[in-house]
Protein 1
Amino acid sequence: MSESRPITEAGGRGDRSIPKIVLTDAEAGAAAFVGSNSRSYNYFEPKKRRATKYEDVTVDVQPDPDRYLTQGWILGWANGDLGYDASWTRMKSSDWHRFRDPNEEWEQSIYINNSNSVRTVQSSIENAKSGNAFEFWNKSWIPIIAKHFSAWGHVDQGLGMYVFMPAQRTAMSNMHNNAISVNCMHKLRTAQDIMLYNMELMGIFGDEFDGEAHQEVWLNDPSWQGVRENVERLMNIQNPSGSSEWAEATFASNIVFEPLVGELFRSQFVMQFAPSHGDSVSPSVIGVSEREFNDRDLRYTMDMMKDFLEDETHGEENKQIMQEWLAEWVPYSIQAAKGLEPIWSESEVQPVSFEESFEQVKSRFEGILSELELRVPEEVTT
Amino acid sequence: MARTSVSKAHAKIQELSWEPTFVTKDPKYKTDYTFKKGGQKDPMKQVLSSYFPMQEEKDHRVYGAIDGAIRGNMWRQVQPRWMEWQKLFLSIIPFPEISAARAMPLLTEAVPNPEIHNGLAFQMIDEVRHSTIQMNLKREYMRNYIDPAGFDITQKSFHNNYAGTIGRQFGEGFITGDALTACNIYLQVVAETAFTNTLFVAMPSEAAANGDYLLPTVFLSVQSDESRHMNNGYGTLLMSLADDDNKDLIERDLIYSLWNQHAVVDAAIGTIIDYGSKDRRKDRESYTEMWRRWYYDDYYRSYLVPLEKYGLKVPHDVIEDAWTRMTDGFYHHTVAQFFATGWMVNYWRIDPMTEEDFEWFEDKYPGWYDKFGKWWEHYSSLSEPNGHNPIAFENTGYVYPHRCWSCMVPCLIREDTVMDYVDGQWRTYCHKWCHWTDTVAFREEYKGRPTPSMGRMTGQREWETLYHGWDLAEAIKDLGYVRNDGETLVPQPHVIFDDNKMWKLDNVRGIEFQSPNVLLNEMSDEEREKHMEEYKQGFTINESL
């Protein structure tokens, strides 16, 4: 600087125009006056003594005429539906804003967790490549991964894009919708992880690995048609008024389909069968998704459903509706699960029978329903 | 991931889509537009495995800057005048952001193109990012700025305040009505492609000039996601343009979106940038100069006009009318005056303008002093409680305005006001285009064509109706704009942090609040015509009080 002019005079360098730095003393505590100590959001009840950062950035971002929205929703549809409409689900709640996502998902956690998942998947593949782990794969296993493992990508794509994506539009609070939107990204990211893994395997195994076989399998292989039907029906869930049924979609996907079909495929098939065929990588890839479901997506769904079931005014009615949902969706998922049975005998080594695997997931499913105090449908027990 | 790998990966993930056969897809979100399948590609070639780590890195930078601002005590140098307006801006913006996330399935349902759906999924989680990152920024302001009152009630006040409602239509417009109108034209093609430049680029520059470098840190990080969203919008718009039957609807939606967002965004951001700044260097751009650069040149001339060759009917007259209103009409200056007139039902403080401000305004907007100078002098002289009423109830000559039924900003350029009997009541509109929006666009048919998917205006659209006949003190209590002693108001017409100079409920008690629209509807036809004739002639500010 040519002259030692104080920077607060905004002298700058020659003719450059820069704003003045002004010391305003506008920091917290610089003066005491009424309200100067009111340093927390005071318009909602935190779940615990002090609001978490998650609550601060999430609660009441989506308005509600039953809280502070005094002018009401100002835009709607020709049929009279408004911005967010309680009639879009059969669940009823005496307080839609009571639910908190136990995972406390917000901006930072979403990106940290998903980036960690990406790194886990990528490092599993890279480690295997550098250790030549793919050389130890049983040759009979390669087409199974090409066909069946890759076909699972369609499931996650369907759930993410066409079940959870519309569901996150319609729930009655920001806490519900944000939790569902994170679930949506878990599914879509896993779908893409599976496809990118497929692409890696095409490079590793060359002609031995048919990278596009999954499409035909998904559309036409009889083993997968029950799964596809279940997913397509989930994609088309709506309540009698014709609008999206977000609570049913979340329930039927995460309480019914994922435990009965998702875990059957991921934990009971891929994780059990791959090691016996020299494949240490596929369990790592799908394991990330399995952990996300167990640790995060099932966890928020259980809390969400318990909130409906424990509602003092509507709990009993909600329970009856969930029983109806079970009656509707369990048969599809049982059919989807049983449809997969042939792939258990397709591989050279069968470390576990389909019956044993299915018993495991049925038991797990019964445990989930028991925790929700819901009756286990006949299809499961017989 | 290398770019070539991203291209291959993007091509690979296209294999995930399929056409369902077990169910006949019944779209939950409808449109009156028609589409042929396929078509547009996603040139951004987005893949989640590269997206998440990239965003995580951006977050590290944002949160590093927040830590730095706290440790370095940025608030020693922020201008209170600026920070007070953030109580309004940051109460509004997280809702439109989260609404944009919620809007994405409108297009996945209505637009038959899986490649575009993939782009929409990225946009959905981007918008969750934006909403929560902005809520967190506001939380830091609340914790570290000298006067947290107003930040502490932020979402409640956004929901029950007239200004919050004006801003809220921005978000509600994304998520209701015709899927293409809402999510493609109103959100992506106009809000994101045109107005994020003023919202997220012009605003940060002004924040930095007022000692606040956190807002630029957060909002430029937000803006770096917007190119993805503009791209999503562009692809869908080109798909719409491929069918001639859509062209009238696109034109309708452009008129509505361009005008409504001019009315809403320019009102708020124009005021915040020009009246929230203490930086009065004559060579810094005014809001109108920014508007000319970011909106008129970069958006209108460089983005919209070239689309004419694809058959887009660009409503040039709407854009020119907006420009005329911004310049000849002094649009956002009339809004600032209105905000300050009603300071006692705000949840932020408004600093009086000074001689230095007057000089800057006159330089940037010749003729400004004659229109607004005297009024701001009255505002300044009435800013501390001294036995007088708030300025709205003193004899300044200012006439409290009617509210526009469409955009809900008041009818401030008096001669432009339109009055009409619509749906069983007398309504006022701030301009012929807002009248058109209610009476032509948001209806069951357009140019003789049924438009069953088009949205509807609902709700209590005139905020003053809620408090018609109330004592002002009771209305403020009801709104919750009272500090924690139960007496002192959250809003103040100054930025003096001294209990002795702050207005209390007792200072505003005994004043009856009235709704112009209720009064208008109570008038006889003759009275109403006369009233409107006088209203449109405007007012003269008294030389002295």
Protein 2
Amino acid sequence: MDILFLTIPIALVLALIFLGVFISSVLKGQFEDLDTPAHRILLEEKSIKGKTNESEQP
Amino acid sequence: MPKELCDHCQEKIVVSFEEKIAGEVKRFCCNGCRTVYKILSENDLKDYYKIREGRSESISQANQKEARFKYLDDEEFKKKFLRSSEKVLQFSFYIEGVHCAACLWVLEKLPELNPNIISARLNMSTSTLSIEFNESANLSEIAVLITQLGYYPHPLLAEIDSVQLKKQETKRDVIRIAIAFFCMGNIMLFAVSNYLGAEPNLKIFFDIFSGILFLPILFYSSTPFFLSALGSIRSKQLSIDLPIALALIMGSVLSYYSLLIGQHHIYFDTLATLVFLILLSRFLLKASQQSSLTHENIYSFASQIPARKLEEGNAKETYARFIKINDYVEIHAGETIPIDGVITQGTSSTNNALITGEINPIEVKSGDQVFSGCINNSATLVVKATSTLEKSELGKALKQIEKGWQGKTSLMRLSDKITKYFVILQLLIAVITFIYFFYVVDFETAYLRALTLIIITCPCALGFTPPLTLTIALSKLAKNGILVKDERVLENINQCQDIFFDKTGTLTKGNFQIIKWESLSSREEEERLLYSLEENSKHPIAKSLRQFVIKQWNDQNKKLIPIQFKKIEEIPGKGISAINENGDIFEIKPFGSQSAQTSFSLSKNDQVLANIYLEDEIYPDAKAILEELRSRFNTYLLSGDNESVVKKVGTQLNFEPDKSFFSKTPQQKMEIIKSHPLSIMVGDGANDAVAINSALVGVAVSNSMDLSLRASHVYFNQNNSLQSLKKLIIVANETERIIKRNVSFSLIYNLAGVYLAIIGVITPLLAAILMPLSSFTVLASSLFTTKRMRNNT
């Protein structure tokens, strides 16, 4: 079981990386609004200017 | 040249959307309008546009709202509420009317509509729009632009710092919990391996790792407990955090000492679980409280009193709280006086009902003192401010109400007290246990039992059950259209014995039908006069009459131009009187008729022009709900209407004759309420305001007038007010039951814990799991409420 002395620290380091990623995403505010992005992704990026007549026809 | 108004909604076009429909080029203000127009025209439903022409009222209302944003450009306002960094300014609006992805789409397109706007982001769950713009943009222009898109922006006037702070606090809380969870999870892995019998050298290795992983929990995640415990020692006030901090210190000292000398008393797993679970339950509590903050926001809108400030002869729209001493304010007839001050121009009369309780209007002239919160009845006044809103009577009253929001109900105070004594008791028992076992057995047993005792008896659940239950009840009510301005209502209502109902709008729909119109002169002239007199009144009868007249005129394709009066005055409960340019006096006065109908006369210079009779409709389920309420309450009918009308409604709804009051003035209504201290008053009109305010629980029903809305403790947003009242009473009832249930549960739980810990049945680890479990039980019990509450909300 001596391999545990090596694998456990490695597992811990890996887990620490994920913890770091989580903390940085919290700091960037990714969890502040959980509703809107789900809608936002469905919307067109197109500008509304210069787009008037029949622009919706396929 | 493009037409200026959208073909669908008649709003001004900001960006034109064009479409050829049936050979004609139509222009629209937005994609939504274009789609609606297309659907209507394709399906031959274009009559919609003809039908709605008659609805002139709603369009003028939208325009009235427009000018209210000028104060946003004030330098002082900017300094206080705008966040700025390197030429980019930031501001947030609460947007009324956000409901779908289309709203998101159009609001986030703001930068394309105004090049000075850099970005716009909408948060749909909170309906807040944060915008960034450069210095050349005017905030008021942006607000007007949003209005034109069909939304109404409420500037979020929270101080920038406090919003930022709150956000950062939440982030810190999440990180604290994340780190605690990470460390706890790993410590648990090691602990389980140890319990299952790891090899001795592995066991030491695991213990050392646990010790290292516990350091972040002790020095980072647990800091809130230590800080609050320190604070409570300094202020000599006991708090729940004191025993937690004590348990943490005792536990870690023991564990690290055992680790050093190679003993087996290592409790890193226990302490880590304890910290994580307490942090988590507190975070959930906070989250559930914050999600119900919305009705608090609504309240703060209601408390904003509009004002018109005069600057170099120009009137500027602003709010009362931005008026400084020696500013001049213009107040039109029918408006609320925003600040305390002295009249410098104009004569008028004021209605001081809300402030002084005096019903009859008071004549005021130049040099007289007026008070904020009073209504200017008849003519435009210019007032020089003598104090700021904060120092005025109304300001103090508003502050009192705002304080009520953070204030505690007596149930909450009681549980605070119990918690405090509980902490004392807990520490005392712990010390006694320690001393007893130290002398009887040994130091080790004494230390362990005291530690277990402290952990298991933490009165967390006791501390947070009342605020949590109340918050949940409030947000349930808000979802049902019942806005509670003061939490104490939920408690007070359970003590109430009497319910007083105003008739109109509460038991009856307030939708008056004209039954008879005794015309004594020209009918057309009468109708026009009636409309003009009632034009600005918010009384339900006035609304019904306006609708009636407009419909008549539209049916005959005539255009109604209201008559302009020099002075117009509405006295709650007494009618309306007006004077025109020629000095003719016109009056609308109720008169006591023998029939069971509401009746009034229209007169010119004391000569009656017409007698009009109206009847109101009773809510269909009123009778059934009243019967239900009668099993617990005495129900009274309290109306300003004449005897026969009140008697008719009274008999229909089974009110006992001695419990129906009729022909009562607002003053008399208030006196009747005051003689029944444990009463609920439900009303809507301005003539109920004082009575609503003096009742233990004052309820304003939907479509209430501004005055009674401000005076009330509860506001029903939904049309069927009796149904809402029933819900309110049930929720209040159940809330008290849940609080009692939870408090007694956690007390029993803790007492059992004390016993088990002293006799040494449970280990510290078990205690650490059981203790937060009790918090979660209480949390769940509050969230699931009771069957009766679930069925009724």
